[in-house]
Amino acid sequence: MEKLLGRPFRMHLPVKTSSGSINSEKYLHQGGAQTSIQDFNVSRYAFKASKRPPRQVGVSIEAVSRRDMMYGAAAAAIAPMFSAVPAAAAETATRQEVDTTITDVVYLDVGYCPAGANQNRTLGESAICKTTDALGRIIIGLYGHVVPTTVANFVKLVRDGAYKGTVFSKVLPGEYIEAGRQGSPRLGEVKPPTDLLPNTELLDALSFRLEHSRPGTVSIAIAENDDDPLLRQRSNYRYTEFLITTGPGPVPSLDGQNIVIGTVLEGYQTLARIATQQTFKPNQRIQQVNKLASLIGDDRAARTRAKYGKPLKPIVMTDVGVLPIREPFPRPF
After folding, report:
1. Which InterPro entries does the protein's record reference (predicted)?
2. Has this prediction a pTM greater than 0.70?
Protein backbone atom coordinates (compact mmCIF):
# COMPACT_ATOMS: atom_id res chain seq x y z
CA MET A 1 0.00 0.00 0.00
CA GLU A 2 2.85 2.37 0.84
CA LYS A 3 4.31 1.77 -2.64
CA LEU A 4 0.97 2.69 -4.25
CA LEU A 5 0.57 5.89 -2.27
CA GLY A 6 4.20 6.95 -1.97
CA ARG A 7 3.52 7.77 1.68
CA PRO A 8 2.65 5.96 4.93
CA PHE A 9 -0.71 4.23 4.72
CA ARG A 10 -3.40 5.65 6.96
CA MET A 11 -7.15 5.37 6.76
CA HIS A 12 -10.10 6.59 8.76
CA LEU A 13 -12.10 3.84 10.45
CA PRO A 14 -15.43 4.34 12.19
CA VAL A 15 -15.28 1.52 14.79
CA LYS A 16 -17.61 0.55 17.60
CA THR A 17 -16.11 0.69 21.07
CA SER A 18 -16.98 -1.55 23.97
CA SER A 19 -19.66 0.93 24.99
CA GLY A 20 -21.35 0.51 21.62
CA SER A 21 -20.76 4.10 20.43
CA ILE A 22 -19.04 4.98 17.17
CA ASN A 23 -15.49 6.25 17.66
CA SER A 24 -14.50 8.24 14.58
CA GLU A 25 -11.26 9.55 16.04
CA LYS A 26 -9.25 6.35 15.69
CA TYR A 27 -7.08 5.60 12.67
CA LEU A 28 -5.57 2.55 11.09
CA HIS A 29 -2.05 3.45 10.06
CA GLN A 30 1.37 2.01 9.43
CA GLY A 31 4.20 4.43 10.15
CA GLY A 32 4.03 8.20 10.39
CA ALA A 33 1.88 10.41 12.56
CA GLN A 34 -1.92 10.36 12.62
CA THR A 35 -3.42 13.06 10.42
CA SER A 36 -6.80 14.54 9.65
CA ILE A 37 -9.42 12.72 7.58
CA GLN A 38 -9.07 15.55 5.01
CA ASP A 39 -5.66 14.14 4.07
CA PHE A 40 -7.25 10.97 2.91
CA ASN A 41 -10.98 10.56 2.51
CA VAL A 42 -12.46 7.21 1.59
CA SER A 43 -15.88 7.84 3.06
CA ARG A 44 -17.55 6.35 0.00
CA TYR A 45 -16.00 3.02 0.87
CA ALA A 46 -16.18 3.43 4.67
CA PHE A 47 -15.15 0.38 6.55
CA LYS A 48 -17.85 -1.52 8.38
CA ALA A 49 -17.35 -2.47 11.99
CA SER A 50 -16.65 -6.11 12.49
CA LYS A 51 -19.08 -8.37 14.29
CA ARG A 52 -16.20 -9.75 16.28
CA PRO A 53 -15.86 -8.56 19.87
CA PRO A 54 -14.32 -5.11 19.83
CA ARG A 55 -11.07 -4.37 21.55
CA GLN A 56 -10.65 -1.72 24.17
CA VAL A 57 -7.44 -0.22 22.81
CA GLY A 58 -6.41 0.40 19.19
CA VAL A 59 -7.84 -1.14 16.03
CA SER A 60 -6.96 -4.48 14.50
CA ILE A 61 -6.78 -5.17 10.77
CA GLU A 62 -8.64 -8.37 11.52
CA ALA A 63 -11.66 -6.20 12.36
CA VAL A 64 -11.98 -5.23 8.71
CA SER A 65 -13.39 -7.52 6.06
CA ARG A 66 -11.18 -8.46 3.11
CA ARG A 67 -13.60 -7.00 0.57
CA ASP A 68 -13.68 -3.60 2.29
CA MET A 69 -9.90 -3.62 2.49
CA MET A 70 -9.80 -4.06 -1.31
CA TYR A 71 -12.23 -1.16 -1.79
CA GLY A 72 -10.15 1.01 0.50
CA ALA A 73 -6.94 0.15 -1.30
CA ALA A 74 -8.51 0.96 -4.67
CA ALA A 75 -9.73 4.32 -3.39
CA ALA A 76 -6.28 5.03 -1.95
CA ALA A 77 -4.61 4.26 -5.26
CA ILE A 78 -6.79 6.55 -7.38
CA ALA A 79 -7.07 9.44 -4.93
CA PRO A 80 -3.79 11.14 -5.98
CA MET A 81 -4.95 11.19 -9.61
CA PHE A 82 -7.54 13.82 -8.76
CA SER A 83 -5.17 16.28 -7.16
CA ALA A 84 -4.65 18.96 -9.82
CA VAL A 85 -1.54 21.08 -10.09
CA PRO A 86 -2.42 24.78 -10.02
CA ALA A 87 -2.61 26.17 -13.55
CA ALA A 88 -0.27 29.04 -12.79
CA ALA A 89 2.43 26.73 -11.42
CA ALA A 90 2.16 24.43 -14.44
CA GLU A 91 2.37 27.35 -16.86
CA THR A 92 5.44 28.74 -15.06
CA ALA A 93 7.17 25.36 -15.21
CA THR A 94 6.44 25.09 -18.94
CA ARG A 95 7.79 28.53 -19.69
CA GLN A 96 10.97 27.85 -17.73
CA GLU A 97 11.72 24.93 -20.04
CA VAL A 98 11.42 27.05 -23.23
CA ASP A 99 14.31 29.22 -24.39
CA THR A 100 12.58 32.25 -25.90
CA THR A 101 15.78 34.13 -26.65
CA ILE A 102 15.39 36.44 -29.65
CA THR A 103 17.66 35.04 -32.37
CA ASP A 104 16.40 36.96 -35.43
CA VAL A 105 14.55 40.22 -36.04
CA VAL A 106 12.46 41.07 -39.10
CA TYR A 107 10.25 43.98 -40.08
CA LEU A 108 7.03 44.33 -42.08
CA ASP A 109 6.02 47.70 -43.55
CA VAL A 110 2.24 47.76 -44.01
CA GLY A 111 -0.09 49.97 -46.06
CA TYR A 112 -3.55 49.78 -47.57
CA CYS A 113 -5.08 50.60 -50.93
CA PRO A 114 -7.54 53.50 -50.39
CA ALA A 115 -9.08 52.98 -53.85
CA GLY A 116 -9.32 49.22 -53.47
CA ALA A 117 -7.92 46.79 -56.03
CA ASN A 118 -6.37 47.97 -59.29
CA GLN A 119 -9.44 47.97 -61.53
CA ASN A 120 -7.66 49.41 -64.59
CA ARG A 121 -4.93 46.78 -64.78
CA THR A 122 -3.87 45.30 -68.09
CA LEU A 123 -3.51 41.60 -68.80
CA GLY A 124 -0.84 40.15 -66.53
CA GLU A 125 -0.61 43.28 -64.36
CA SER A 126 -0.94 43.03 -60.58
CA ALA A 127 -4.33 43.58 -59.01
CA ILE A 128 -2.65 45.29 -56.04
CA CYS A 129 -2.56 49.07 -56.13
CA LYS A 130 0.76 50.73 -56.84
CA THR A 131 0.24 53.52 -54.32
CA THR A 132 -0.72 52.79 -50.71
CA ASP A 133 -1.42 54.77 -47.58
CA ALA A 134 1.04 53.73 -44.86
CA LEU A 135 -0.26 52.02 -41.72
CA GLY A 136 3.12 51.59 -40.06
CA ARG A 137 5.91 49.11 -39.37
CA ILE A 138 5.80 45.88 -37.36
CA ILE A 139 9.07 44.57 -35.89
CA ILE A 140 9.06 40.89 -34.93
CA GLY A 141 11.53 38.99 -32.73
CA LEU A 142 11.85 35.28 -33.50
CA TYR A 143 12.49 32.31 -31.18
CA GLY A 144 15.16 30.44 -33.10
CA HIS A 145 15.97 28.13 -30.19
CA VAL A 146 12.38 26.87 -29.88
CA VAL A 147 11.72 25.90 -33.52
CA PRO A 148 14.96 26.52 -35.48
CA THR A 149 13.81 25.09 -38.82
CA THR A 150 10.48 26.92 -38.79
CA VAL A 151 12.20 30.20 -37.92
CA ALA A 152 14.92 29.65 -40.55
CA ASN A 153 12.28 29.19 -43.26
CA PHE A 154 10.39 32.30 -42.13
CA VAL A 155 13.58 34.40 -42.15
CA LYS A 156 14.42 33.15 -45.66
CA LEU A 157 10.94 34.08 -46.90
CA VAL A 158 11.47 37.59 -45.52
CA ARG A 159 15.05 37.93 -46.76
CA ASP A 160 14.14 36.75 -50.28
CA GLY A 161 11.25 39.22 -50.44
CA ALA A 162 8.59 36.53 -50.81
CA TYR A 163 6.19 38.50 -48.59
CA LYS A 164 6.80 41.87 -50.28
CA GLY A 165 3.74 43.05 -52.19
CA THR A 166 1.49 40.39 -50.65
CA VAL A 167 -1.71 41.04 -48.72
CA PHE A 168 -3.27 40.18 -45.39
CA SER A 169 -5.97 37.67 -46.22
CA LYS A 170 -7.87 37.79 -42.94
CA VAL A 171 -8.49 40.34 -40.19
CA LEU A 172 -10.45 39.25 -37.12
CA PRO A 173 -10.61 42.12 -34.60
CA GLY A 174 -9.92 40.97 -31.06
CA GLU A 175 -8.27 37.79 -32.34
CA TYR A 176 -5.63 37.86 -35.08
CA ILE A 177 -4.56 38.97 -38.54
CA GLU A 178 -3.31 36.50 -41.16
CA ALA A 179 -0.99 36.85 -44.15
CA GLY A 180 1.21 34.74 -46.41
CA ARG A 181 -1.36 32.79 -48.40
CA GLN A 182 0.26 30.99 -51.34
CA GLY A 183 -0.88 31.55 -54.90
CA SER A 184 -0.49 34.10 -57.66
CA PRO A 185 1.71 37.15 -56.93
CA ARG A 186 -0.61 39.17 -59.21
CA LEU A 187 -3.32 38.68 -56.58
CA GLY A 188 -1.07 39.58 -53.68
CA GLU A 189 -0.28 35.98 -52.76
CA VAL A 190 3.05 34.36 -51.92
CA LYS A 191 5.26 32.44 -54.31
CA PRO A 192 7.75 30.77 -51.94
CA PRO A 193 11.34 29.94 -52.93
CA THR A 194 11.94 26.34 -53.87
CA ASP A 195 14.80 25.76 -51.42
CA LEU A 196 12.94 26.06 -48.12
CA LEU A 197 13.97 23.40 -45.60
CA PRO A 198 11.81 20.31 -45.02
CA ASN A 199 10.20 20.90 -41.64
CA THR A 200 10.04 17.88 -39.33
CA GLU A 201 9.11 20.20 -36.44
CA LEU A 202 5.52 20.03 -37.65
CA LEU A 203 5.44 16.45 -36.32
CA ASP A 204 6.91 17.31 -32.92
CA ALA A 205 4.42 18.07 -30.13
CA LEU A 206 7.00 20.27 -28.39
CA SER A 207 6.81 22.71 -31.31
CA PHE A 208 3.25 23.59 -30.23
CA ARG A 209 3.88 24.17 -26.52
CA LEU A 210 3.94 28.00 -26.54
CA GLU A 211 0.51 29.61 -26.25
CA HIS A 212 -1.16 32.59 -27.89
CA SER A 213 -1.49 34.20 -24.48
CA ARG A 214 -0.76 37.84 -25.29
CA PRO A 215 -1.18 40.42 -28.06
CA GLY A 216 1.53 40.36 -30.68
CA THR A 217 2.13 36.60 -30.62
CA VAL A 218 3.39 35.46 -34.04
CA SER A 219 2.79 31.90 -35.24
CA ILE A 220 2.91 29.83 -38.41
CA ALA A 221 -0.66 28.99 -39.44
CA ILE A 222 -1.19 25.23 -39.48
CA ALA A 223 -4.81 24.67 -38.43
CA GLU A 224 -5.83 28.14 -39.66
CA ASN A 225 -4.10 27.63 -43.00
CA ASP A 226 -6.39 28.41 -45.95
CA ASP A 227 -4.08 27.47 -48.83
CA ASP A 228 -5.66 25.41 -51.60
CA PRO A 229 -6.00 21.76 -50.43
CA LEU A 230 -4.47 20.49 -53.69
CA LEU A 231 -1.47 22.74 -53.11
CA ARG A 232 -0.93 21.33 -49.63
CA GLN A 233 -0.81 17.79 -51.01
CA ARG A 234 2.36 18.48 -52.98
CA SER A 235 5.53 16.86 -51.67
CA ASN A 236 7.46 20.15 -51.78
CA TYR A 237 4.75 22.17 -50.01
CA ARG A 238 5.99 24.44 -47.20
CA TYR A 239 3.88 26.50 -44.80
CA THR A 240 4.17 30.24 -45.37
CA GLU A 241 1.01 31.66 -43.79
CA PHE A 242 1.46 33.33 -40.42
CA LEU A 243 -0.75 34.86 -37.73
CA ILE A 244 -0.30 37.81 -35.40
CA THR A 245 -2.67 38.10 -32.44
CA THR A 246 -4.14 41.59 -32.01
CA GLY A 247 -5.35 41.44 -28.40
CA PRO A 248 -6.46 42.70 -26.05
CA GLY A 249 -6.75 39.17 -24.64
CA PRO A 250 -5.37 35.71 -25.42
CA VAL A 251 -6.63 33.53 -28.26
CA PRO A 252 -6.74 29.99 -26.77
CA SER A 253 -8.47 28.59 -29.86
CA LEU A 254 -5.10 28.86 -31.66
CA ASP A 255 -3.14 26.98 -29.00
CA GLY A 256 -1.77 23.55 -29.80
CA GLN A 257 -2.64 23.88 -33.48
CA ASN A 258 -0.29 26.60 -34.75
CA ILE A 259 3.45 26.98 -34.09
CA VAL A 260 4.44 30.11 -32.15
CA ILE A 261 7.68 31.48 -33.63
CA GLY A 262 8.04 34.90 -32.05
CA THR A 263 6.52 38.11 -30.76
CA VAL A 264 5.98 41.70 -31.88
CA LEU A 265 8.68 43.93 -30.42
CA GLU A 266 7.43 47.20 -31.90
CA GLY A 267 4.39 48.25 -33.90
CA TYR A 268 1.35 47.57 -31.72
CA GLN A 269 -0.25 50.75 -33.02
CA THR A 270 0.17 49.37 -36.54
CA LEU A 271 -1.59 46.17 -35.42
CA ALA A 272 -4.43 48.26 -34.05
CA ARG A 273 -4.76 50.17 -37.34
CA ILE A 274 -4.89 46.93 -39.32
CA ALA A 275 -7.53 45.52 -36.98
CA THR A 276 -9.82 48.51 -37.58
CA GLN A 277 -9.94 48.10 -41.38
CA GLN A 278 -13.28 47.12 -42.84
CA THR A 279 -13.74 43.44 -43.60
CA PHE A 280 -16.33 41.08 -45.03
CA LYS A 281 -18.75 40.17 -42.26
CA PRO A 282 -21.66 37.90 -43.22
CA ASN A 283 -24.95 38.47 -41.49
CA GLN A 284 -26.50 35.85 -39.23
CA ARG A 285 -28.70 34.37 -41.94
CA ILE A 286 -25.74 33.76 -44.27
CA GLN A 287 -23.82 32.12 -41.44
CA GLN A 288 -26.73 29.79 -40.70
CA VAL A 289 -27.02 28.82 -44.37
CA ASN A 290 -23.29 28.18 -44.45
CA LYS A 291 -23.50 25.88 -41.41
CA LEU A 292 -26.33 23.95 -43.05
CA ALA A 293 -24.34 23.60 -46.27
CA SER A 294 -21.38 22.35 -44.28
CA LEU A 295 -23.51 19.72 -42.53
CA ILE A 296 -24.75 18.28 -45.83
CA GLY A 297 -21.19 18.17 -47.19
CA ASP A 298 -21.27 21.09 -49.63
CA ASP A 299 -17.64 21.96 -50.47
CA ARG A 300 -18.58 25.56 -51.18
CA ALA A 301 -19.26 26.15 -47.49
CA ALA A 302 -15.58 25.96 -46.54
CA ARG A 303 -14.57 28.26 -49.41
CA THR A 304 -17.13 30.79 -48.30
CA ARG A 305 -15.99 30.66 -44.66
CA ALA A 306 -12.44 31.34 -45.83
CA LYS A 307 -13.63 34.76 -46.98
CA TYR A 308 -14.91 35.72 -43.52
CA GLY A 309 -12.74 38.57 -42.26
CA LYS A 310 -11.27 39.36 -45.68
CA PRO A 311 -10.39 43.08 -45.89
CA LEU A 312 -12.62 45.03 -48.28
CA LYS A 313 -9.56 47.04 -49.39
CA PRO A 314 -6.20 45.29 -49.78
CA ILE A 315 -3.82 45.58 -46.82
CA VAL A 316 -0.35 45.15 -48.29
CA MET A 317 3.14 44.42 -46.97
CA THR A 318 4.87 47.11 -48.99
CA ASP A 319 8.34 46.14 -47.78
CA VAL A 320 9.91 43.42 -45.63
CA GLY A 321 13.43 42.73 -44.41
CA VAL A 322 15.82 41.47 -41.75
CA LEU A 323 17.18 43.80 -39.04
CA PRO A 324 20.34 43.48 -36.93
CA ILE A 325 19.79 42.28 -33.39
CA ARG A 326 19.84 45.00 -30.74
CA GLU A 327 20.12 44.24 -27.05
CA PRO A 328 18.29 44.03 -24.80
CA PHE A 329 15.07 42.80 -26.33
CA PRO A 330 11.91 42.40 -24.25
CA ARG A 331 11.07 38.78 -23.44
CA PRO A 332 7.32 38.32 -22.95
CA PHE A 333 7.70 34.71 -21.72
Report:
1. Cyclophilin-like_dom_sf, Cyclophilin-type_PPIase_dom, CYP28-like, TAT_signal
2. no
